[in-house]
Each structure stands twice: as structure tokens, then as C-alpha cells.
Design a protein that fits this description.
- This is RNA polymerase sigma factor 70 region 4 type 2 domain-containing protein.
- One of its GO terms (molecular function) is DNA binding.
- InterPro entries: RNA_pol_sigma-70-like (IPR039425), RNA_pol_sigma-70_dom (IPR014284), RNA_pol_sigma70_r2 (IPR007627), RNA_pol_sigma70_r4_t2 (IPR013249), RNA_pol_sigma_r2 (IPR013325), RNA_pol_sigma_r3/r4-like (IPR013324), WH-like_DNA-bd_sf (IPR036388).
- It holds the Pfam family Sigma70_r4_2.
- By secondary structure, the chain is an all-alpha fold.
- The protein folds into 2 domains: 98 residues, Orthogonal Bundle (Rna Polymerase Sigma Factor, Chain: A), CATH 1.10.1740; 49 residues, Orthogonal Bundle (Arc Repressor Mutant, subunit A), CATH 1.10.10.
- 75% of the residues lie in helices and 0% in strands.
- It is built from 9 helices and no strands.
- Helix 1 crosses helix 2 and helix 2 packs antiparallel against helix 3.
- The N and C termini lie far apart (41 Å).
- The model has no long low-confidence stretch (mean pLDDT 82).
Length: 183
């Protein structure tokens, strides 16, 4: 199984750099759900998240065609940076209120994986978290989503946000405190 930062991933990225469609397909399959989940929690609808996810991978393919992908850099960080920039552009162009999470849509993801008897508990938890998350500033929302929803490490988040690890740790701690304190 493919892992982020693994030798297998580096080989696929090397092949992607050579415009190999099959390598792109493998990377796409591995990262699709992660990038979708990241974007989904930052925009207001499933369809917008799907569109922005598609645009993210299209941009990665364009970078490969232009020879701008570097094998020695983290492919995962590149993907999240592209996705993050597209979300920023989306909000700039549409003048929508940033980072609104539809509670109904947030439960859609959880319910897809949960058994029927667990769906109600998950829905309630997602509603509580969603309400509290919306009250946080966007920087806190982003770090919580990257760390707990997308399960990225502090180091990976630091690479994506281009900040020091210590800064990410402190911000995550403050974000969690703010999330706990949010009513």
C-alpha cells in the first residue's frame, strides 16, 4: 500500500515528472479522499468540494506537464498547498463567508462509513464539532482539519503552511483550547 513520503510514492512522483499517466492515476487514487476531505471542510457544499478537488488534481497534472514537480520535495505538501490556494481563490472570487461547514453535509461523510446504529452518535458529534469549529478563526479551523480530519503530522502541516513546527504545535494547542471553550 502506498504511504506518503514512501519510496514507492517517490518513484511514482518521478514517473509523474516524466508525464506518466498511470503514475498520476495511482497518486490520484491514493490522495483523492484526503484532498476532498480537506477541501470539503473548508467550503459550503459537496459539489464545490468536488469541483475544487478536481481542479487540484488538474493543477498537479499541469505542473507535471510543465516540468515543475520536484521529486525531492514532499508531494503531499504540494497537493495540500495547491488545494489550499484554490480554496483561498474560491473565497476571494465568490466573496462567500469563509469556512462555513454545513452540518447536514458534514454528517454525510461520517454516515457513509458508519453503521446505522452508530450514525446517530456520529451525527450528533459532528453537529457539535461543526458548530464549535465554525466559531474559530480560520487559522485554527485549518490546523484542526489538517491534523485531526486528514491525520497529518505536525511536520507535514508545517510544510504545507510554510511555518515552523513549534509554531504549528502552539497554534494547534490554542486551537484545541478554543474549540473546547466554544459553546
Amino acid at each position: 500500500m502506498l504511504k506518503s513520503g514512501s519510496l514507492q510514492e517517490k518513484i511514482l512522483v518521478g514517473r509523474l515528472k516524466l508525464k506518466d499517466k498511470e503514475a498520476f492515476s495511482h497518486l490520484y487514487d491514493f490522495y483523492l479522499d484526503k484532498i476532498y476531505r480537506f477541501i470539503y471542510f473548508k467550503v459550503t457544499s459537496v459539489s464545490e468540494a468536488e469541483d475544487l478537488t478536481s481542479q487540484t488534481f488538474l493543477k498537479i497534472w499541469q505542473l507535471a506537464l510543465e516540468g515543475k514537480i520536484k521529486v525531492n520535495e514532499s508531494f503531499q505538501s504540494l497537493l495540500y498547498k495547491v488545494a489550499r490556494n484554490l480554496v483561498i481563490d474560491y473565497y476571494r472570487s465568490s466573496n462567500r463567508e469563509k469556512n462555513k461547514i454545513s452540518l447536514e453535509e458534514a454528517t454525510h461523510i461520517a454516515e457513509a462509513d458508519a453503521h446505522l446504529d452508530q450514525a446517530a452518535d456520529v451525527k450528533i458529534e459532528m453537529e457539535i464539532i461543526g458548530r464549535r469549529l465554525k466559531k474559530l478563526k480560520s487559522e485554527y479551523q485549518e490546523i484542526i482539519i489538517l491534523h485531526f480530519i486528514n491525520e497529518l503530522t505536525i511536520k507535514e502541516i508545517a510544510n504545507i503552511l510554510e511555518k515552523k513546527r513549534g509554531n504549528i504545535r502552539v497554534t494547534l494547542h490554542r486551537a484545541l483550547k478554543a474549540l473546547r471553550d466554544a459553546q
